[in-house]
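Lab notebook page, bench 4
Experiment: in silico fold of construct C2
Operator: M.H.
Input chain length: 220 residues
Purpose: comparison with the prior construct
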Amino acid sequence: MKTAAPAAPVRVPPQFDTPAQQDAAATLGLWVFLATELMFFGPLFFGYSYGRSHFLQAFAVASRHTDVVLGSVNTAVLLTSSFTMALAAGMRKADGRRAAMWLLWATAALGIAFLFIKGTEYLHDWQQHLIPGTGFALGQGDSAGAQLFFFLYFATTALHAVHLTLGISVTGVFAFALRRGAVQFANGERIELVALYWHFVDVIWIFLYPILYLVGRSGG
């Protein structure tokens, strides 16, 4: 009677003693990376705080010219994508490879839908002459404050879109890897790291949504 061959040991780089140590280092590295990413958004949030305190009325007026419907739809889309990403990570950890693959594809598709809606919103902003500079539509009153608001609006949402595009690309790579059967590459630990990055991008949007779309409407 033949006995089953022992499973091949998992190979890790020489700087690590065990796979668990490698996973812990990768998680810590991603947290450090996300902390550095906050340095991109931090000055923009600081600029918003400064503008909000110095141009209170202008920021409120400018905020009412953002498309709250499209912004709200995009918020729902991104929250749904966080749900599918969390499911994908959980299914991969439970060895549900096929389900994880389709959930990753769904997450990437929702991210693309977000970018499409955001692009539509940018088009509306351009058609309504809400681009800061010559011909800015909100020229009456405190035009400088309104232009500062829209400068920060475009800067923060465009930077967020760049991060989301990176997340979509990485998610697609892992979904394709699962489709090709590269299970060692697309393991549960790595997909959890992708999910952590995706949730970071979503959290940034959760902060952007109220300050860009709701602040001018909260008072009626």
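Observations: Confidence is low (pLDDT under 50) at residues 1-9. Residues 53 and 74 are 27 Å apart (CA to CA).
Next step: discuss at group meeting.
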